[in-house]
Amino acid sequence: MLTVENLSVSYGGIKAVDNISFQVNEGEVVALIGANGAGKTTILRAISGLVDKEKGTVVFKEQPIHNLPPHQIVALGISHVPEGRRVFPLMSVRENLELGAFGRKNRKEILADMELVFAKFPRLKEREMQPAGTLSGGEQQMLAIGRALMSRPKLLLMDEPSMGLAPMLVQQIFETVTEINKSGTTILLVEQNARMALGIANRAYVLETGEIVLTGEAQELAENPQVKKAYLGE
Amino acid sequence: MFFEQLLNGITVGSTYALIALGYTMVYGIITLINFAHGEIFMVGAFVGLALTRFLNVNVFLAILGAMATCMLLGIVVERIAYRPLRRSSRLSALISAIGVSIFISTLVQLIRGPQTTNYPASVINNTVYTIGSIHISKLQLIMILVSAGLMIALQLIVKYTKMGKAMRATSQDYDAASLMGININQVISFTFALGSALAAAGGVLVGIYFNAVGPFMGTSAGLKAFAAAVLGGIGSIPGAMLGGLFLGVAEITAIALGKSSYTDAIAFGILFLVLLIKPTGILGRPLQKKV
Q1: Which residues of B touch A74 (CB under 8 A)?
Q2: Using CB atoms within 10 A of its CB, is residue A68 exposed (0-12), middle (13-18) or buried (19+)?
Q3: Which domains does chain A have, with CATH numbers?
């Protein structure tokens, strides 16, 4: 579904991502794991068109997207839950969700989808008219996910959804990710929490300083002594 | 007497507010002080003048014509002078803005000459309405009503339309907005169009009110409106309205106290004090560093 080939991204002469290739197949949950600064976020931002690529190609459903601006990439069916949630703090929960459906026209369907998000996250319904900036971290994460779903994505890019959340909430967010995947959305997940990520992913890629050092089935990787030592703290 | 002066202050202040809105909206979206904005105001005044003089239209059509022309001008200026520099340093864009400002005022000088001209006297009659002890001229009434109407319209656009929501989202988080599928370039063009239209309306009103239209009128009006925008809190739309009104009333108060030569000093004194004491202005958001 998504094929990234020979992707390199530099910030001011420093390589953040160096010649990376990987793919995501339809229906999968694929995790990119690695330490802080390994280039995970940059990869997602490159796919979404937020950063300029030095070289490489990104093909989504047989269509090259590496030269498209972000709004056109969203229109093709890729939605991105950015690192740090990035909800619009001064706008209400409802307005945030409406913006998630910005490219869609059918008002009725949009409202129906909003109800689906509220059903998934009842807390958001309670806070529908509240500015998003007043929500707790967990609620903001729910909003960021709900907002991304409002565009009816075929592929969902998720950047550190567990960051800064209490363990119970982390569990809940990961369950939600699995649910979203089961209802037919392919997921590319970036996580520092390798244990959780490997727990729900089908396959994973391990990144170190901008390069892929290991790849395989998530379960296999979870058993890999190297991964255990470096990322699972065993 | 007091109420009449207050009314005069509101009249002048509402035009400052109209211009200040353009500064604040553009700043809110791309954190650029559009120093060519005063010149757009000036071109608006000239377009209104041409329409009333050659086509004999009434004041409202003159305003509409000036608004439409300047919308286009604003979009073109952004496209040519700012968009190519979007990813360069802020200083480059600022220098480009000053360049555009000089270019437009020089161009108008070339075409029209440096002298000021005035609107035909027929454009508005001198009817004065009396309500109790307050006298208000027809022109003042039109200025206040047109400004108020435009500002209400702007609020409705920003609050309820899809484009308005996109504007707010973009000003709060540029990257996240583009991840929503918002075409940022379109939002920026729209913002320039809106701001320029308001400035053009202000240009026609000010041109008629002070009975003088010249290629340099944009410089001082622009700087004062900029002071008003900073006073209200740059980036804040209600702030720009409030700042404009406050500045207008402050200036008229100075005139009423017999210190009319100090009006400019008041505007820039306010700018100076705000920057010194509360740089975020009355309604500005506290500066946040995005991580």
Answers
A1: 179-181
A2: middle
A3: 2-86+156-231 (3.40.50.300)
